[in-house]
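Re: the request from the purification team.
They wanted to know what the chain is likely to look like in 3D before they choose a buffer screen. I agreed to run a prediction and write the result into the notebook, where they can find it.
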Amino acid sequence: MPRVGYVRFAGVALEAAQAVVPDYRRPRSKHTYTQPQLLAVLCLMRYADWTFRDAEVHLAEHRELRRALGLGRRVPDHTTLWRFLDRLPLAVLQELLAEVLRRCGPPTGPRGGRRRSVVAVDATGLATGSVSTFFVRRLYEIQGQVRERAYWLKWLVALDVDRQLILGQTAHRGPRRDSATLPTLLAHAPGVQSLDRRRPVAWVLGDKEFDAEANHVFIHERLRAQSAIPVRRGRPPRGGYRAALAATPLPAVYRRRVLIESVFSTIKRTQGGTAPGRTEARQVKQAHLVGISYDLARLEQLRRAA
């Protein structure tokens, strides 16, 4: 995915944020910065892979960027951005993702009509800091210490493979198996909820991690869609959807599941693969901002292509 300029990205992020959060939390709040401005800065920070201090420095140096965000000569410092993220509810980030998807519009076919979507579900790991794991491992080896079990943040995503848009996301501490998380992810994904009203979800694609009869039942009976999930070895199907899937080869549409891996690669190459934070709650918010900033960049690209 080609990069979107920071100035254009900031303008799109501010428009979406203004539709989600009010200007101020309380009538007597300081009117120095608005909540949409701070939320747009957080999205830009994750898109550019900046730290809080980097965001403060770049905003102070970039006049056009401040103009796109509606800022004057004064810019929010790193503590203001950190505190705003700390008190920002996770539900607001879900609403922001839904607003971005609404602005992207529904999926359309070659003749302008609505088409059924192919949704891929997968997970990837995000580092909780900028220090490389190789450096940490070597440091423990040199000091002769036994390293404790490594943990990371596991980011689970539902992707529209045709439009390359993130429809829903969740994050938690890993390692952990996410087979039981699939129904909750799809049921609460803003993009899937808007699509489910007209039942246009055609396929749900996943790897062997999501092989469970409950997942197939949810996809077929709740979403009214088809499922393409390989059956794991060692668990012979005893009936139901898993048995029907094991008796036939995987459909050709399953090959498109690899596109979600391409999206993960694009995000980590352009936006970085970190969700920094000292607590799991802040790391989860950072991961959600990664997905929102990716969709904001896609929204700007769709606008320019229209």
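For the purification team: The chain has two domains: 6-88, 109-279.
Please add any questions underneath this entry.
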